[in-house]
Amino acid sequence: MSADGKARTNADWPAIRFTVNGESRSVHVPPMKRLLDVLREDLHLTGTKEGCGEGECGSCSVRMNDELVNSCLVPVLQAEGADIQTVEGLALESSLHPLQESFLHNGGAQCGICTPGMLMAAAQLLAHSSHPSEAEIREGLAGNLCRCTGFMRIFASVAAAARETESELAKEPVVEQTHHAR
Ligand code: FES
Ligand code: FES
To answer: Domains along the chain?
Structure first.
């Protein structure tokens, strides 16, 4: 209820601005609304899933300012000015991200509830470690639970994607740098 006794509408809330998947977005929502709900309900980015709603399962993981966060625990106010990546931002223009391809081909996804969160945790890991060891993969995904796959296929999917990404990078031509004296 607002000060004049009228019911508040979303338009009454001040704008909260952030970037999602490279696009500037602005929402008028209660500042304590969970980032998870803002993504799903207000921005219609329903790839991010809710599992436990208590920060335990990692299903709602997104990348925010190059950190992996549980969006069920983040009040949207904390996202003001942030750079957020959700699973919708992983795919490349007309093709799946190597992680998505790998999960598909290596049986890393079954019911799919944990998958967006797993992919985001894996993307965070690969952004900082291009050829992670199995121990690093396990550690990188330690906050994400899966009740279907027994984890081994997920770990194998991430390892295969890392190998694939590395070999793609190796194919890229080296650009010779020319330095001009002033
Ligand atoms: Fe957020 Fe489980 S739904 S951690
Ligand atoms: Fe079902 Fe992971 S694939 S919870």
So the answer is: 10-89 (3.10.20.30), 98-171 (1.10.150.120)
Residue whose CA is at the smallest distance from ligand 2 atom 2: 146
**β partners of residue 28:** 15
136 Cα to the center of ligand 1, angstroms: 22
Please give the backbone phi and psi of residue 75, each rounded to the nearest 5 degrees, phi first: -65, 140
Residue 167's pLDDT is 73
Atom of ligand 2 nearest to the CA of 109: 3
Position 7 scores a pLDDT of 74
Where the chain has pLDDT below 50, the residues are 175-182
Q: Is 146 in the pocket of ligand 2 (CB under 6 A)?
A: yes
3 state DSSP class of 124:
helix
How far is the centre of ligand 1, averaged over its atoms, from the C-alpha of 54 (Å)? 5
Give the model's pLDDT for residue 126: 97
Predicted TM-score (pTM) of this structure: 0.89
Encoding tokens for residue 126?
Answer: 């690969």
- Which pLDDT score, from 0 to 100, does residue 104 have? 96
